[in-house]
Amino acid sequence: MKYQSALEIIGPVMVGPSSSHTAGAARIGRIARQVLGETPKKAVFHLMGSFAETYQGHGTDVALLAGVLGYGPDSEQVPFAKERAVEAGLDYAFRRANLGYFHPNTVAVELTGESRSLHMIASSIGGGKVEVQELDGLPLKFGAERPTLILYHTDVRGFLAQVSHELDSHGYNIARLALERWRKDGPAVTVCEVDEPVDDALLNLLRERIPALREIRLVQPD
Amino acid sequence: MAFAQLHALIQQAQARGTTIAQLMLETEQQQTGRSPEEILARMRQHFDVMEEAVRRGISEPVRSRTGLTGGDAYRMFQYVQNGAAFADPATLRVVAYALAVSEVNASMGRIVATPTAGAAGILPAVLVYALDTGRYAREQVVQALLTAAAIGLVIANSASISGAAGGCQAEVGSATAMAAGALVELAGGTPEQVGHAVGLALKNVLGLVCDPVGGLVEIPCIIRNGLHAWTAIAAAEMALAGVRSVIPADEVIQVMHEIGKEMPVSLRETGLGGLAATPTGKRLREQVFGRAATAAPQAVTEAGAGDAVTAEATEGAS
Known about the structure:
Chain A is 31% helix and 33% strand.
């Protein structure tokens, strides 16, 4: 079944006007912010397809910006995101781009913070549902409908076994999992969606117990 | 249970002597692990947002972000209040209510997608109208959201709720069917009558194309929400009177899907055909997008880092 929950039909609560061009855009911005894991100083949005054609009329621009500032699709701050960005000292730009073969509503987000930066490509696939397509050039897909762990680690044997052991022994069920690496034995990223609510205690526990884990970020559903 | 066939839901509700809303509540509980109380609390919150949008849109003229539309809900509500209407003024309010939510949506105000933002006016309009009659407790109206959800899930899973995939019939049509069925169950109709209301409502929107001017959720979306709220009430009343949908609801849903697939791309939310392609539609598109779309197609379209952007930030945020 494509749709399973009553809340997919009666929802989401969102500011208008479009679930794909506004609510989805805010979700994408907020995912990028959470993966960055710190206050962004600069945000550049490369818009393609229908996003590029109609972004002003649908408020796609302010929605993306609001998301990057940490607001959700239902925040009444969305229409005022440009003002909020100025207050927060966030530099931003919107550009048209041809990102290649993706869904028509796709954006590449470049986000820069104090200590790190991020390049993420994501699509708004309808009704406010979104799907990340690439993270820092790696083909990692996730929708952030569930708590999602982004694990930056070294590619070593047994890494996934350790992760799944820790998650299982603390009552977590893995709903979706992907691992990509830049090179063998080199840096790698694992994206892991779980069914149960996640808090900082779990993140600290994983940091403590898994030596190959370098950094961990958490993307929470809205 | 799987929500893909309305007749299966109706049969099960009949066999167990319960409502479609109750089946939805039980299934939601199994799917999400949430308690019935949590699920109803979420539905209550969503209904509050719906009602807020209705009340706001009728109490002041709300302009869209682009400036193309707005103020019609307020206009309509004033007209109804003045008492010169042909139809029963109390019932006619439902049109103003649906316009209100769709205008709030176009102004970037807060709404609930039911099932989408483009069709978000219809279900709140009929349910707030039902609440206003004073015949139903708020809690009953909240329960009716579950009836609507069940109908929407069936349509989404066996056909489509996306204008890009199935035309306006899939968005406004689905919302009209959800609203009609929800009203029937709220009024104490049988599960079978809910099915007839869905069939009757949906038949009346078959073939409706998605042709928004400039690709924006404004013209004709707002007006279609207003008029179809009225249709939803009429379909519910017909089903409650005992009128049957001779073609069963599931077959109507199936044919809606087939008609949607046969629609040309220009009439499926691309803003290229239908009303969008009329001389006025094209002119309005240019009015909104003209400069940015033609002046610098591949260059930087907008950048901001300081005071330069603040004036624009407040634009259209009425």
